UniProtKB/TrEMBL annotation:
UniProt similarity note: Belongs to the citrate synthase family.
GO CC entries: mitochondrial matrix
Pfam families: Citrate_synt
Pathway the protein takes part in: Carbohydrate metabolism; tricarboxylic acid cycle; isocitrate from oxaloacetate: step 1/2
Transferase recorded as keyword: yes
GO biological process: carbohydrate metabolic process; propionate metabolic process, methylcitrate cycle; tricarboxylic acid cycle
PROSITE patterns: CITRATE_SYNTHASE
Record bears the keyword Endoplasmic reticulum: no
Protein name: Citrate synthase
Length: 380
C-alpha cells in the first residue's frame, strides 16, 4: 500500500500544531490545555471551561464573574433575527437553525476588525440556545419566549427555556453542564479542522463557524448522538436489543455511538457521561430500561467486536433523561463545541498559513482535445 493510500480519510496525518487538547496523545488521555477531562467534568463548570479554551488558562473568580456577566448580556435575540426565526418551518432540522442563526448574526453583527474572536465566541455561545428555543416554541406553539432567564448558567438557561419551567432538577442541570464540558473540544475533529481551513483563507469568524456546523451535522461526527437515540428508542428489552444487534452484525451496518478514529480502546469521556446517565436512571424521571439496554449493547460490542462506546452513545440516554428531544442533540453539541472552535480559530489566526493540501491524482493521462463537432462516444 502506498504512503498516500494509507492516509485515506487523513487517518494518522499530522495536519498542523495545536496547544489546545490532547486526544490520545502519548497515553495521557484527554486534556484541555493540560487539565484532565475528569477534573474538568467533575470539578468545573462549562463557563470555566469556556474561559479555559478561549483564553488559554482557567479563570480566577473575578474573571469567571466577568464572563458570566458577559454571557447574560449577550443572550438577547435581535428583533430582526426573531422575525427570521418566526418564518422558519417547524420541520426544519435544529442544525439548520444553528447554521442559519450564525449566518444571520454574521450579517447583523459582522466581524469588522481584528481581536473580536473572544466576544463573538461568547455571543454565539450565549445566543445559540435561546435562538434555537425561540424558533422551537414559536414554530410548534406560537409562543414567543423571553430568552432572558436571569443569572442562569448556559445549561440552566437552555433547560428552563426548553421546558418553560422556572425550576429544573439540579442533577439534570449538572448532567447537561457536564455534557457541554465533554463535547467542548477534541483537537482536529472534522468540524474543527473544517473551521480552521475556512479561516486559513482569511475568511471571517462566522464563516468558520457555519462551515463547522455543517461538518458536525453528519452521523459519523456530531450526528451520532441523534442516530444512537434513534435506534435505542424502540428497544425496550434485552431480547429486542439482541435482535437489533444481531441484525446489524449480519448486515454489517455501523452501530452509531461506537468506535473512534483516534481512541481504539475506551473514549475517556464515555465513562463520565455514563456515570451521569446512570445516576439519572435512578431518579423519578429516569429510564432504567434504556440504561439496561444501553449497557447490554455496550457489553456485547466490547466483548464481541472490541469496539468501545464513544461520547455519543451514553449522551443519547443522558439527554433523553434530561427530557430533551432527539433532533436537538447535535444542536446542543454546537453550543458546547463553539468553545473549541473559537479556541482553534484564534490559534489558527495567530500563526496562519493557507491550508491547501494536494491530492494523489488518479485521473486519465493527458488527452488530445476534440472539438465539439467531432466528438462521438468513441473519442470522448
Ligand atoms: N459499528 C460497527 N463497526 C464499526 C464501528 C461501529 N460503530 N466503528 C468501526 N467499526 C468497524 C469498521 O466497520 C471496520 O471494520 P472492518 O475492518 O471489518 O472494515 C473497523 O471497525 C475499523 O473501523 P474504521 O471505519 O476503519 O474506523 P475509522 O477510524 O475510520 O472510523 C468512526 C471511526 C468514528 C468513523 C467509526 O467508528 C464510526 O463510523 N462510528 C459510528 C459513528 C460514530 O459513532 N461517530 C462518532 C464518533 S465520536
Amino acid at each position: 500500500m502506498s504512503e498516500k493510500k494509507q492516509a485515506g480519510g487523513l487517518q494518522g496525518v499530522v495536519a498542523g500544531q495545536s496547544a489546545i487538547s490532547t486526544v490520545g496523545v502519548g497515553g495521557i488521555g484527554l486534556n484541555y490545555r493540560g487539565y484532565d477531562i475528569n477534573d474538568l467534568a467533575y470539578k468545573c463548570t462549562f463557563e470555566e471551561v469556556t474561559y479555559l479554551l478561549l483564553k488559554g488558562h482557567l479563570p480566577t473568580q473575578q474573571q469567571l464573574d466577568e464572563l458570566k456577566t458577559l454571557i447574560w448580556s449577550k443572550r438577547y435575540i435581535p428583533c430582526k433575527l426573531k422575525q427570521i426565526l418566526e418564518t422558519l418551518p417547524k420541520e426544519s432540522h435544529p442544525m439548520d437553525i444553528m447554521r442559519t442563526v450564525t449566518s444571520i448574526l454574521g450579517i447583523l453583527e459582522p466581524e469588522t476588525k481584528s481581536g473580536q474572536e473572544y466576544d463573538i465566541s461568547i455571543r454565539l455561545i450565549s445566543i445559540f440556545g435561546p435562538a434555537l428555543l425561540y424558533w422551537y416554541h414559536y414554530s410548534n406553539s406560537g409562543i414567543k419566549i423571553n430568552e432572558n432567564t436571569g443569572k442562569d448558567s448556559i445549561a440552566e438557561n437552555f433547560l428552563k427555556l426548553y421546558h418553560l419551567k422556572s425550576e429544573i432538577d439540579p442533577l439534570v442541570i449538572k448532567t447537561f453542564d457536564v455534557s457541554l464540558i465533554l463535547y467542548a473540544e477534541h483537537d482536529f475533529a472534522a468540524s474543527t479542522f473544517a473551521a480552521r481551513v475556512t479561516v486559513s483563507t482569511l475568511s471571517d469568524f462566522y464563516s468558520g463557524i457555519t462551515t463547522a456546523i455543517g461538518t458536525l451535522r453528519g452521523p459519523l461526527h456530531g450526528g451520532a448522538n441523534e442516530a444512537a437515540m434513534q435506534y435505542l428508542e424502540p428497544l425496550r428489552s434485552i431480547p429486542q436489543a439482541d435482535q437489533f444487534l444481531n441484525s446489524r452484525y449480519q448486515s454489517k451496518q455501523l452501530i452509531m455511538g461506537f468506535g473512534h478514529r483516534v481512541y481504539k480502546k475506551e473514549d475517556p469521556r464515555s465513562p463520565i457521561i455514563k456515570d451521569f446517565s446512570l445516576q439519572l436512571s435512578k431518579t423519578q424521571n429516569g429510564d432504567p430500561t434504556l440504561l439496561a439496554v444501553s449497557q447490554h449493547i455496550e457489553k456485547r460490542m466490547v466483548e464481541e467486536k472490541k469496539i468501545y462506546p464513544n461520547l455519543d452513545f451514553y449522551s443519547a440516554s443522558a439527554y433523553r433523561q434530561c427530557g430533551v428531544p432527539t433532533p436537538m442533540f447535535t444542536a446542543i453539541f454546537v453550543i458546547s463545541r463553539m468553545t473549541g472552535w473559537g479556541g482553534h480559530i484564534i490559534e489558527q489566526r495567530s500563526n496562519n498559513k493557507l491550508m491547501r493540501p494536494v491530492s494523489d491524482y488518479t485521473g486519465p493521462a493527458k488527452k488530445q482535445f476534440v472539438p465539439i463537432e467531432m466528438r462521438n462516444k468513441a473519442n470522448l
